[in-house]
Each structure stands twice: as C-alpha cells, then as structure tokens.
TrEMBL record:
Organism from which the protein derives: Pichia kluyveri (Yeast)
Matches recorded under InterPro entries: Dis3_CSD2, NA-bd_OB-fold, PIN-like_dom_sf, PIN_dom, RNase_II/R, RNase_II/R_CS, RNR_Ribonuclease, Rrp44_CSD1
Gene Ontology biological process: CUT catabolic process; nuclear mRNA surveillance of mRNA 3'-end processing; rRNA catabolic process; rRNA processing
Domain RNB: 516-849
Family assignment from sequence similarity: Belongs to the RNR ribonuclease family.
Record-annotated PIN domain positions: 88-203
Highest classification ranks of the organism: Eukaryota, Fungi, Dikarya, Ascomycota, Saccharomycotina
Annotated protein name in UniProt: Ribosomal RNA-processing protein 44
Statement: the UniProt record of this protein carries the keyword Nuclease: yes
PROSITE patterns, alphabetized: RIBONUCLEASE_II
C-alpha cells in the first residue's frame, strides 16, 4: 500500500520576478518513508490581459509581424446601469463553461471574459470536446476570451489547506483571481463579476466582497434577456415537479469502480439499435457476445455512444434481440401526444409491444439457443456522448388555441433527426417562432424521474427543407467543425501566400533544405479522382540497370508549413480530418495549403516526403529509403485518364512506361496481399452528379473501379506499412499507428445462419485468410451481384479500425486484420488527415531530419490526439454517407424510379432493402407492404408473409432480389426527407 501526504510548504524568491513555492510530501510504501519536494514556480510578471492596464502594457506591444499576441480584454467593456454595476469584465467558473458553453459561444451574450487557468484545467479533465471549444473561443478576437495563468501568478496562487477537498480549493483559487482583478484594475473603475452556478461558491464570493451572479441572474440584467433566456441550461430553467417515471438511481462511483475491478460489473460503449430505440448492446472484452440491453428501464437513460457500466442479469432473463421495429413514431401514433401530462401513458404501449413479442417467442420451439444473448441493465454512466443535436419542435407540443398567442415560457419537445435518440424537453418562450424550423438544442441533464432528457435551445438553422439549413444540420449532426479558420490560425500561413515558391538556390545556408534530395528529374505523376485539387500523393517508377525497379511514392510535405504546437497545428489536430460531402469539402487545413502550396500540382516544384523502394520483378522489396525531397509532377491524371493512357499501345513515352511498371508491380503486390489473407470487402459506392451552376443534384451512378484505382491503393498501402515499421523502430512508445482487431466469431453468427439456411453457404472466421477464401466462395451463379452483397454485409460484422499510440498495445495487437499485415499507419494523406501529419513528424525525426516535438513524445498527449482523430474519422465517414443519402433524396424528389433491390433484414413488422443503383438502404414497414393483421413472421426462416395492397398473399425472405419503386418523401415525424421504397 502506498500513501502520500503533504506536510508543509514555503515560498522563496529565486530571481527578479520569479518565486518558487515548495511543497513537501512524505510518500510511504510498506512502512518506508520517502521525502519528496516539489517546486512550483510563481511569477510576478504575468499580465492581466487588459488593454487599459498601463502596468501590463509591454505585453500588448505589436510583435514583428505587427500583431498583438492574443485577444485581449477591451478598454471599454460592457457598461451595465442595472444595480450600478458599470463597466465590467466577466470571470467564469468551471460549471458555467461545462453547462453553458453554447451561451459563451453565442455572438450576442458574453464579451471580455476571463478564463482562469484553474478553470481551463478542470474543463480539460472533465470534457475534452468542451475544452477544445473553449480554446477556440480564446482565439476569437471579437469575443475577447482570455486565459489568465492564476496558478503561476505570485498574487493569485494560494496553497491548498490541509484536508481541503479539491473542488473547494479550486473554487478558492478562482475567487482569489476575481479579487486580484478587482484590486488590479480598481484605478480604471472596471469591476470583475464572477459567474458561478455553485450556490456555496457564490455565497463565499459575496462574503469576500466579490460581485457574483448565477448565469440566469446576469442574463436578467442584459437588454436582450428574453431572447437569451431560452438558451439557459435546463438546470436553471425547469421546474422540479416532473414525475413521469422512476428510473433506477446510478450506483455510486466507488461501487462502480469496485464492481468493474472485481468483475461483477462491465464497462463499454452502448450502441442503440437504429431499428428499435428500446434496444441497445454493449461490447465487453470478457464476454463472447455483446451484452443486450432491452427496454427503457434497463437502458436507464443511456444515450447512443455513452460509456456505460452494465450489470449482468440472471441467465433466466437472457433473451434474443427483438425481431420488431420500434420507434417513437410508432409508439406515439394514435396516442395523446407530447404534452407533459400525457407522456407517462405512452410507456403502457411500449410495454404492450414488448409483452406481445415475448408471448410470441414463448410459443415457439426454442431450437436456436445460439441467438440467445446475455442481457444486462445500465447501472452507471462513465462518460456522456452528448453534443449539439438537430431536430424540430413536435407539433403536438403546441396547443394552437392558446400557445401561439402567448410568449409565456413552457415545456415543449424536440424530435431529433436521429430516430435512435429520444425526444428532448426544452423550455422556451418562442414556440410560435420555432414551429416548422430546423433547430439546434443541447442536453443538460436527465433526471431519474423524467422520461426524457432536459436541454435548452441553442439556435435556429432555418426552415425545414431549406437546402442551407439541411446541409448545416447534417454537419452538426455528425459533429463536423465547419466554421471558417480563425485569424490566429491563418496568421501561421506563409506571408507570401499564393506566391510562395520552392527556393531556387538549394545551397542558401538552410541546413534542412540541404538535406532534401532533388528528384525533379524523375518522371512523377499523380492519379486521383476527377476534379481532385488537394493532391496528397504522386508516384514514379523506372527500370534500374540491374534489372530491378526504382519505385517512389511522394507525399505532400505538409509539416514544412504546419509546425507542431502552433495554432494552425492545434486546429488541424482538433478537426482531425477533411470531410467530403457531395457538393463541398470541409477542409482540415486552410485552402491555401490544401489546394495550393502543399498540393502536388503538375508543372511546379513542390516539397515532398518520399519513400523510395528498390523492387525486383516479383514486387519484393530489396531496399527502402526515406527522405524529404523536391519534386516536379509531370501530370495530374484522373483514374480514367491514366487507364486510357496505359492501355494506349501507341503511347511509348517514358512517363507512360513508368505507369505501366507501376501497374504491373501493383497487381503483384495485390496478389501477395490477398495470398496472405487480406480481405476484399465492399460497401455501396455511388457518385451524385450536381448541376455546375446551382449545385442541385440531377443524377446518381455507381462508381466505376479501374485498375488505376488499385494501382494507387497498393503503393499507398506499401508506403504506410514501410513507414509504420520505421517510426515504430524509432519511437516504440508513441509511434502513431493504425490497427484493425480480429472480429469475434459471434459477430458473424447471424449472417452465417442466414447463408446456411438460404444458400447452403458459410463464412469461415478462423483467420483473415479463411474469411477471404470463404467470401470468394459465396457465389450465386444466377446473380453476379450476390457476392458483392455478402461482402457488404460481412463488412458490417467487422470491428472498426482505429488509430493508437504504439505503447498502448503489445506488438501482437498491432495487426491490421483486414490488410493482413502486422503493422500499419497512415502516412500518405497529410493534407486531409492529422494522423499522417504526426507520422510525418515521427518519420522526419527517425531519419534525423529534425527533432520530434515534445507533444508527440508525451504518451498522455498522444492518447488525447488518437482519441479525437478516431472520433473525427468516424464522424467524417458518417457525414459523407449522410450527404449522399440527402442528395439521393433530392434527386428523387421530383422523380420516381423502379430499381432492383435486395432484402438484407427481415423483422416481424417490416423489411430492410438495399438498392445497389443508389447505394441506399431503406426500411419498408409492414403497413406500407400490406395488411398488418394478416401478416405472419417466420423468424427461423427469416421470412415475412403478408397480403399486399393488391390483395395477393406474398412471402419475402432475406437475400431475395425484389423490384422496388423509389420515391422521396418528407418524414412527418422528424421533418427529414428520406428515400421511401415500395415493393412492386
């Protein structure tokens, strides 16, 4: 057992303006005491960040580029006549930031805000996404949010008292900062107001003569308070009389941690079914199958994506997943509506639905024990996944006879665009104005006596179905950062702008420039999708005198412009990746870099990071080199252009010959990969064509994959593998890598059962090689698309690939299952992925080009980076798919199309059909198919029998090819336009 106790402290001056505070600790382990002295340096020259302060004037002198270092507090802040407050700055505590970040970001509310270092640290520890939003605010020169380093200022730092809990100590540090500002700026007649939602902290502040308000109280003093009231966190907004349900209280932190440690409780992220909002599952490392969570009470207020703690239910309560589609729209149909007093009645219908299904299941012979899953209930939330959500006000929330003529605040419900999420209760005075609008809301809490979470209104996007509003909604729904780059970020770009060029004189005294290898004599080209302007990569190949081949992959040298630790780098790390939508690209880095200075455009000199192999005739790597280079691409080809040139036998120039070498070697590399067990999976790939002037969608087509697509892919994979080995050898604890875990065999049980029953086929999961071989055998001689369909469905059974720092896993766990390689990273797209930027910096350090910045050598900081980029990468993928879905809906808005589709899921009250032509899948509910009362569901055969609209009895099963009519309809419940299918 180890114990540590602080036994004293003292402060001494060590130089002019610099003090050191010593903390003495005694650390005891097994009776042996060790004295530890920690020094905490304090300064007397930390500026207050106010432009009006003459004592801190030196800080605000413009630098060499004419810019003031940071946003600073105004010399003429808001002057409030109310309560004779006068001119003042705002100082916020941690809870204000955590609970009201939306109000802080609003352009109409708070200006000249002081963020104590104590608050910044607490926010970072409790919510990294909110910390990033707060950091963005501190770069906003118009809002003027400043960070004051109170814990390093000799006048504001105070030692912790013996036995003082950390929250009380932090509150005391914050109050000390408020007192400092009041004294420091007293001669300028500027006060400092402490905003806090902690009652005790407010009372103590008032006793210490600090002007202090809650956020609600302060907003009451502002001239536009009525409008701002709607944006208050619901903790300050709602009455406490709601009593709709009684959820189980969460276990205490001690009980949760103890249960996880002794194995009686399980921890993981919960995923709510997109077809049944009353069903979720949690993947747990120690169990062969995911834990199934059924019913509102067992879900116990868990949100999709929350990190939860689950308690296993007794084995006699284990069940199969629900075979029924259940959403709030179904439950609410023919019910009383969304008024507060009616909500409690809806649970009766839920219970009836679930009970009826359970009775049906009990009547069957239980011959499929493999479908039984362990069930559990949520007993605690480790971390919420809450973010900003987009939806519409429920029309049933408004009593049109009374509410539309009243501005009195009332509780209403917001139906979110994501049907797997519950409605959110907000309080607003503007219900009349918000009907028919696409609005943004935030969640504040979910009390155990409330059937729904409580939140607050953030802002309006526009009318439902307005193109701009729906596009912004899509980005917000997938948490994509799309705001313009700040001045602080843009100031990091080269001053020459578009006129920047590679220096003509390579021997100009620049040591790093001398280290670059000049490859402008190589016949290099790029091959990308049509219209690509952010060209990350280029290639070349030539035959060597010894009969082998020189093959080069050249990647845009983004890190030459994006230096570690700069605002530009921090913004790239925060965004994580570029996001590609149908009609636009949301850049990770400013356009000047992405589409100009870094882009490997043809006919101009560019800095690159090169990987150069010597390969033999069989594409075996004989030697590999890594170096920074200068290149000049000869051409920028689209895939089809490159394919045509390679196939044209009349073309015998050296550039074309080099491309033919690349194609030949790429085919051999692919054969080697597939022989090693690499998977050839699939996903629906479509392209939406838009009008060049209006950007309106007008056509959808399936993407054509050519040999040149594979050519580029193979050499990018090869470069990523080579770089991964090099950076891991040099940085075994912090190398930026990417892994893909082996999926549990249980993930394929359902697909295998369907295949065996319907097609007499099966998928082997013993290894990636056996899986790849078995997928090759899944062929229907009468249907060439069937194999692609099975690959699409198999992809959904896989685990997601993830970025990681190498020190977090053993080498055996580095394996990328899908590629069948032992180590892998992303190096080849630094313009659009932050992982690649880190890999570039690590590779540069590994070849002694330049030292590695400390932020990439700190394991804890690397963990934060990989966590964020994993999230951003997933969000970007979902946003891209949602954009295609939205535009397909727009294409079909004024058109009706008949297409072939495939049934991929069968429920007791509906089916899911995939349409390859448009790459979309859609749910067809039983009421759309035909007569609900005549239906019969055969779960063991994955089939549904019903009487269709024409009066004919019909049976459909999984894998059936069906003809469907496709239309675009507006979902009345969510206000979201969707593709609706009808069986023909």
């Amino acid at each position: 057992m180890t114990t540590t106790a602080a036994v004293g402290g003292k402060r001494k001056r060590v130089s002019s303006g610099l003090y050191v505070s010593q903390k003495v600790y005694v650390k005891s382990r097994n009776g042996n005491a060790t004295k530890i002295v920690r020094e905490h340096y304090l300064r007397s020259d930390i500026p207050c960040c106010s432009r009006i302060c003459e004592n801190c004037n030196d800080f605000y002198k413009p630098g060499p580029n004419g810019q003031i270092p940071n946003p600073i507090l105004s010399e003429s802040p808001l002057d409030l006549k109310s309560l004779n407050i006068g001119k003042h700055y705002i100082l916020v505590d941690t809870n204000i930031v955590l609970n009201a970040i939306d109000i802080l970001e609003n352009d109409k509310v708070l200006y000249d805000v002081i963020i104590p270092q104590t608050v910044l640290n607490e926010v970072r520890n409790q919510s990294y996404p909110i910390y990033l939003r707060l950091r963005t605010l501190t770069k906003n020169e118009d809002k003027r949010f400043v960070v004051f380093y109170n814990e390093f200022n000799g006048e504001t730092y105070i030692p912790r008292k013996h036995g003082e809990i950390i929250n009380d100590y932090n509150d005391r540090l914050i109050r000390e900062t408020a007192k400092y500002y009041n004294n420091h700026l007293s001669e300028y007649n500027i006060k400092t107001i402490l905003l806090t939602s902690d009652k005790a902290n407010k009372e103590l502040a008032q006793r210490e003569n600090i002007l202090s308000f809650t956020l609600n109280e302060y907003i009451d003093l502002l001239p536009n308070s009525i409008e701002l009231k709607d944006m208050l966190p619901s903790t300050e907004n709602f009455d406490k009389s709601i009593n709709e349900i009684k959820y189980s209280e969460y276990y205490s932190s001690a009980r949760l941690m103890g249960g996880i440690k002794n194995g009686s409780l399980y921890q993981g992220n919960i995923t709510i079914s997109s077809y049944n909002f009353l069903e979720g599952n949690v993947n747990v490392n120690n169990l062969p199958k995911p834990l199934l969570i059924l019913g509102r009470e067992n879900l116990n207020r868990a949100f999709n994506g929350d990190q939860v703690v689950v308690e296993l239910l007794p084995k006699n309560k284990w069940k199969k997943p629900s075979s029924q589609i259940i959403d709030e729209e179904t439950i609410n149909k023919n019910e009383l509506g969304d008024n507060d007093e009616d909500e409690v009645l809806i649970s009766d219908k839920e219970r009836r639905l679930l009970t009826q299904e359970a009775i049906k299941e009990q009547g069957k012979d239980n011959d499929d024990e493999n479908k039984i899953m362990p069930t559990g209930r949520v007993v605690g939330i480790i971390k919420r996944s809450w973010r900003l959500y987009v939806g519409q006000l429920s029309p049933n929330s408004i009593n049109k006879d009374t509410d539309l003529i009243s501005n009195a605040p009332r509780n209403v419900f917001v139906i979110l665009m994501d049907k797997s999420l519950p409605k959110i209760r907000i309080r607003t005075r503007r219900a009349n104005d918000l009907i028919g609008k696409r609005i943004v809301v935030a969640i504040d809490s979910w009390n155990s006596n409330s059937k729904f979470p409580s939140g607050h209104f953030v802002r309006t996007l526009g009318e439902i179905e307005d193109k701009d509003a729906e596009q912004e909604a899509l980005l917000l729904e997938h948490d994509v950062e799309y705001r313009p780059f700040s001045k602080n970020v843009l100031s990091c770009l080269p001053k020459e702008g578009h006129d920047w060029k590679v220096p003509e004189n390579l021997d100009n005294g620049d040591i790093q420039l001398k280290k670059r290898r000049d490859l402008r004599d190589r016949l290099i080209c790029s091959i990308d999708p049509p219209g690509c302007v952010d060209i990350d990569d280029a290639l070349h190949a030539r035959k060597l005198p010894n009969g082998n081949y020189e093959v080069g992959v050249h990647i845009a040298d983004v890190t030459h412009f994006v230096k570690a630790g700069t605002p530009l780098d921090q913004e790239g790390a925060s965004r994580g990746t570029s996001v590609y939508l149908v009609d636009k690209r949301i850049d990770m880095l400013p356009m000047l870099l992405g589409t100009d200075l870094c882009s490997l455009k043809p006919y101009v000199d560019r800095f690159a990071f090169s990987v150069l192999w010597e390969m033999d005739e069989d594409a075996n790597i004989i030697n590999v080199e890594y170096f920074k280079s200068i290149i000049k691409s000869r051409e920028a080809f689209a895939y089809e252009e490159a394919q045509i040139r390679i196939d044209d036998e009349k073309k015998q120039d050296d550039l074309t010959k080099g491309m033919r070498i690349l194609l030949k070697l790429s085919k051999k590399l692919k054969r080697q990969r597939l022989a090693n067990g690499a998977l050839n999976l699939a996903s629906p790939e479509v392209k939406v064509h838009t009008d060049s002037e209006t950007s309106d969608p007008n056509e959808v087509e399936i993407k054509k994959l050519l040999d040149t697509n594979s050519l580029v892919e193979e050499f990018m994979l090869c470069a990523n593998i080579s770089v991964a080995r090099k950076i891991y050898d040099s940085f075994p604890q912090v190398a930026m890598l990417r892994r893909h875990g082996e999926p549990p065999a249980t993930n394929f049980e359902l697909l295998n059962d369907m295949l065996r029953l319907k097609k007499g086929l099966s998928i082997s999961t013993e290894s990636s090689k056996s899986l790849a071989d078995s997928l090759d055998r899944c062929i229907d001689s009468n249907d060439p698309y069937f194999n692609t369909l099975i690959r699409i469905m198999a992809t959904r059974c896989m685990l997601a690939a993830e970025y990681f720092a190498s020190g977090n896993f053993s080498y055996a766990e580095f394996k990328h299952y899908g590629l069948a390689v032992d180590i892998y990273t992303h190096f080849t797209s630094p313009i659009r992925r932050y992982c690649d930027i880190v890999a570039h910096r690590q590779l540069a350090a590994a070849i002694d080009y330049e030292p590695l910045h400390e932020i990439h050598m700190d394991k804890s900081k690397m963990d934060l980076v990989v966590k964020n980029i994993n999230k951003r990468h997933r969000n970007a993928q979902f946003a891209g798919r949602a954009s295609i879905e939205y535009y397909v809906g727009q294409v079909m808005k004024n058109n009706q199309s008949d297409q072939e589709g495939y049934i991929i899921k069968v429920f007791s009250n509906g089916i899911v059909v995939l349409v390859p032509k448009y790459g979309v899948e859609s749910l067809i509910k039983l009421e759309v198919l035909g007569d609900v009362n005549s239906s019969s569901f055969d779960e063991s055969n994955y089939s549904l029998t019903f009487v269709d609209k024409s009066g004919n009895k019909r049976t459909v099963s999984v894998f059936d090819k069906v003809n469907v009519s496709i239309e675009s309809v507006l979902d009345d419940f969510t206000g979201k336009r969707k593709v609706q299918l009808y069986l023909k």
